[in-house]
Amino acid sequence: MSGKWLKLRSIGTNDNRSMTKELSQLDKSLFDFGPLANKYDCWYGTSAGQSHDRVQKQDVRCLLRPVKYYKQLLDVGCGTGHWSRFFSSLGYQIHGIDISPEMIAVARTVVPECTFDVADAYNLPFGDGAFDVVASMALLEFVSDPAAVVREIARCTKLGGSLLIGTLNRLAPLNQQRLSQGRQPYAAAHLLTAKELGEMLRPYGKVRMAASPVGHREKLPPLAKMLPQWVRLSRGSLSGAFIVAEVQT
After folding, report:
1. Complete domains list, the chain, with CATH
2. d(CA 24, CA 31)
3. pLDDT of 193-234, one tens digit each?
4. What residue ranges in the chain does DSSP mark as E strands?
5. Among 100, 126, 234, 243, who pairs with 211 as Cys (CB 3.0-4.6 Å)?
6. Cα–Cα distance between 24 and 42 in angstroms, integer?
7. What whole-number distance in Å separates Cα of residue 117 and Cα of residue 53?
8. How many Å separate Cα 66 from the centre of its chain?
9. How many CB atoms lie within 10 A of CB 44?
């Protein structure tokens, strides 16, 4: 562990309840994923889940710079460690944090090669520029102030490093269907468009994006054509269900 990392108190099944309460108060989450921790990854066991996962990871590989030496990556809102495992497979040293002790407990069990702790995305317990890459996958849509979370992510990213953001695309047909049906956790979320995400990230550097559709069957949403020129597209249209954006600091 880097000397710049603030060592967090480990939280297990016999945690101090007051600390958990304090972390919960700090968090401004739109949905409590804790009760879903043990079945959260079931989606990836389905045919549809595997297809979306494959496309999303292809987009991440397209945007995330190769590991030329041992780099440290902070996974903010790591959940059960699904993306942490993937980032680790690319050669990064992973530290994952999440507000949910239940999710962290699962992550520690299923991804023992990574380090996980309970922490709040609005107040990351790390020094400025502590990580080469700070990633946040499927978190911004579930917090009440995504811009504040992005500021913290940028603060913890070293100069010349990368911010990597993944978020559900509000304009994608799949997510439109989920919202119209009132399905949770999507109904509780505030989904972003590619344009909104790009504008949020623009102050930190040039934004590169990808949102590839599964099977390339989805049409390009009309608003996607209105994206400003400062957003550089990396792979095709932005019509897929999951937007991946990268900014080099």
Report:
1. 17-248 (3.40.50.150)
2. 12
3. 999 999 999 999 999 999 988 875 444 444 444 444 334 444
4. 72-76, 93-98, 115-118, 131-137, 157-168, 207-210, 231-235, 242-248
5. 243
6. 25
7. 24
8. 19
9. 13
CA terminus-to-terminus distance, the chain: 22
Q: Which tokens sit at 70?
A: 């041992």
User: Closest Cα partner for 168 from 149, 148, 152, 146?
Assistant: 146
Placement of tokens 């597209």 in the chain:
233
For residue 215, is it left (φ>0), alpha (ψ between -120 and 50) or beta?
A: left
pTM of structure: 0.78
Distance CA 5, CA 131 (A): 9
Provide the CB-side half-sphere exposure for 7 (13 A, CA): 3
